[in-house]
Amino acid sequence: MSFDLAKLKKRPPYPFETIAVAVAFSPRLEGVVGEAWRLAKSFDAQLLLMHIGNRSREKENQLNEHLEKLKIDESKVRIIWNEGDTEDALLELCKLHVVDLLMLGALQKENMLQYYLGSLARNISRRAKCSVLLLTDPDPAGTRYKRIVVSGVENPKTLHTIDTAIYFAEHMKCKELTVAKEVHHPGLAMTMAGESTAPEASKIKKELKEEEMHKVHDLVEHCRKHGDIEICEKVIQGKPGYAIRSYAAAKKADLLVINSPDGKLGIFDRIFTHDIEYILEDLPCNILIVHSRT
Amino acid sequence: MAKLSHNDLIVFLLAISVMLITSRVIAELGKRWKLPVVMGELLVGIALGPTVLGQLAPEFFNWLFPFKESPGVSIALDGIFTLSVVMLLFVAGLEVQLPLVLRQGKIAISTGLAGMVIPFLIGFGVAWFFPHWFGVPGKGEGHYLFALFLGTALSISALPVIARILMDMNLFKTNIGMVIIASAMFNDLVGWLFFSLILSMSGYADGHMNLGYTIAWIIGFGLFMLTVGRIVLNRILPWVQNKLSWPGGVLAMCLGLCLLCAAFTESIGLHAILGAFIAGIAIGDSVHLREQAREIIHQFVTNFFAPLFFVSIGLKVNFVQNFDLLIVSVIMVAAFAGKVIGASLGAYFGGMSRRNSLAVGFGLNARGAMEIILGTLALNAGLIGPPIFVALVIMALVTSLTSGPMMRRFVEH
After folding, report:
1. How far apart (Å, rounded) are the C-alpha atoms in residues A102 and A94?
2. Which of A243, A261, B95, B258 could form a disulfide with A182 if both were Cys (CB 3.0 to 4.6 A apart)?
3. Residues A16, A124: one domain?
4. What value of ipTM does the predicted structure carry?
């Protein structure tokens, strides 16, 4: 297989022109394909159904039954059968077909051993060179996205992520979008314990919070026009990754949008959990990981 | 059970109250000139100890701190000071966050590594090739252990002082600030693990331990606490914080676990500080530990145990008699050269500009309270003598005081 790498580089994270879905013939297949079909229609995107494994008459029939049941016009989707290591083959296919969004079904929480060893959906989320949508509870009729939470973490990629979230919200007719920035100050408690009076400590904390609020506000000011979507700005206290996961769960968000990881993640990142790993450890809702491809 | 006599109890309580009150008054005065609290505490110790009070009013000094005359008071005070150092290492561990080091990635690792390896080599080299400068015999295991100790002593940093300097300079939340914090955490972690190894090699407890056995225990205990211990803590902490009285429940659990781990490591021949430090890392790393609980633990330890510990240092050592200009100069030059060159090179090769790399080097050069704790433990274990200890204390203070101004000269805003 060969592909033109130049097509991928600098390609903006949206619009979603090609959406792919990993077909695993699990009990959730109908839900995942239904979700993908709805998104492909909303974004006017080409839909690729990709299965890694042997091709058999039985599998073809099962897939056709689902497409029929979901009233999907077969001429509008492309089914790709491939063999090899599932993870590597899926990632290769995504590059080859210049996929903008890869959709995968994922368990909300995996058993500890599976998590540390790395499951397919989680590993692809860590490695993919395109945006990934993890569906925790796929609905054949398609999820209604009412509340979206976006991570406003300090990173050059964040503006792309917020813009992609707004683009997603516009097409999904979602009216409520929150940009939440996590604040964590390691060493602060220790520093203030012996050397600050109570008013000084409160002042320092207040100033730090205000500074973060300004940063979130700046981000929202610079993001793309969002029409009638209401954007809330929020600063939340806690460790990056864990704080936003808890916030999304408490807010009963339908989608949490985050940046793709900055570097390669390995077993150490799972043992000494941080950032995206806190989210992958226990998915609070559907997760959209935006790869800005800059 | 042996008891303190009526008089002993009065003296014991008086001694503690004098240490607490005077150190707080002096520390508050020092804050007006932006001097670190630990400096005030050390000065009070020197004033109340053999250096000043012992010379001016020896009878009163011996009555207030009857280390020789009253074994009961002496043991009680020693118990408090030991508990203090265990607690100080516990709170130091609370702030070590390995995920932060991993998140900062290559630059934090290169800065942390170079900021440890180069000062270690310089410290080890100076002690190994010029032991006569320090009055250490140039052969035998004592020479080797001293060289290892000096290397370690020069390679650690002091997170509390560094964090305070960064906050005063408004750099706490910046990229350079986070690199310094993450590297200091890395230095603390490796430095204290290595120091525990040296202490057990010195046979301070019940004779010499097998090196392989010691290393296996340190790694095994650390890994157990940071994996299994962390998982158990993540299940227990939310329950403790929600179901038990607040903050009593969480305080009792955290401090109890700290002492339990300290007792365990002491019982297997490693120092109690290792258990406390690793318990601190495991608890501090938990996402379930509320920020308020963390603050309360810090307040309790920093304002009660820390002054007692740092004042006690001045009570034990005569700083004038044990001041040796050669030792002080050698340690000072080695400390500045090792840390500034090492950490700056690490930051530069990690991708920072030349000026910011130098700012990182001077930032990590602050040794503060951590160096003094390390020196005290080494003095108690017989690894070093009072003149080297005095030199380490002076180096810790000078590096802490010069760190901020030097960073200001180089940092690019």
Report:
1. 8
2. A243
3. yes
4. 0.74
